[in-house]
Amino acid sequence: MQERELAIPGGSLYYEMIHSNVKITRFQGLASEVQIPDRIENAPVTVIGKKAFLSKKNLRRVILPDTVEELEDWAFAYCDGLIQVTLPRRHIRFGKAVFLECGCLQLISDRSGSLPGELLAAAVRVFDAYYLMDLQEAGNEEWLRKWDARLLDLLHTSDQEGYSKQVLCGEEDYGSTDLEAYVSGRRKVKVRLALLRCLHSRGLPEALSAELTEYLRAHTKGKESQETWLVVLEEHGEHREYYSLFAELGCVNRENLDGILSDIGDAHPEMKAYFLRYREEQLGGRSFFDDLSL
User: What is the pTM of this model?
Assistant: First the structure.
């Protein structure tokens, strides 16, 4: 099959004509955003081929056409800067590991914004659960039940699961064989997902909400392990919805607030102002940190 080329902003799309449809076979270029047209040579673009965007490090956003029907194996694998994918809300066939190692993927959306985009992204980025990539069902009660079941599976796994494999493979493959660091990393994954689900709480069962809240409180500032606070501080210091949720879930109290303010320092002034107001309005009283003008 002869491959043809279509110049687009920031690069070129290569494609083949198959039974009056277009299959994108590869992309070359340095574009950070790629929008694939609905039609090429007046034929619909229906397939994104195997490894078509493999390891495109500059790619941050890709917009797929309403005509697309299939994403083949590893179509966007190792695009480790990819943040957002826009898909049509229709049935799409997903091959194997389409978004493998897309560690920055935060949003899988449609043009109307009706998809639960962050939950979908987590489904493939963290869960590797492509059975959740049913875009016609995404967000409905049954779909949320499946997403929550996968979250619970992960939440209930041991924080040491997989550590022996890391030790056997060695630091050259995994970066560290330190057990404490490994366990902390596992907890941070759980914290991120728990916060995400609490933030997108539609259809969240009361029992699960209580379990997630308990988990997040168990790892807040002042506890033996503090991954909830570390994730909020290190990853969401500029995101009001996250640090306000952190407070609303009861992760802030009179005993840990001074330490929280000290950790923030001058890094996130709006976040610090929020917690200062929270103390005055919800906790009452002042501390010596106020007198030091922290």
Answer: 0.90
